[in-house]
């Protein structure tokens, strides 16, 4: 049970990190481009 919980805990964390990075990257890129132009 502990092993499954550990793996399950890590998986969502990675997915969340990727989603956050994707959203942050998109927002940051948009802001950077807007500011540069």
TrEMBL record:
Biological-process GO terms, alphabetical: signal transduction
Q: Which domain of life is it from?
A: Eukaryota
PROSITE patterns on file = NAF
Q: Name one Pfam family in it.
A: NAF
Every copy of the NAF domain together lies at 10-34
Q: Which InterPro entries does the entry link to?
A: NAF/FISL_domain, NAF_dom
- UniProt protein name: NAF domain-containing protein
Q: Which organism is it from?
A: Nymphaea colorata (pocket water lily)
């Amino acid at each position: 049970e502990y092993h499954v919980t550990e793996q399950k805990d890590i998986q969502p964390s990675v997915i969340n990190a990727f989603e956050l990075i994707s959203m942050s990257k998109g927002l940051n890129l948009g802001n950077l481009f807007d500011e540069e132009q």
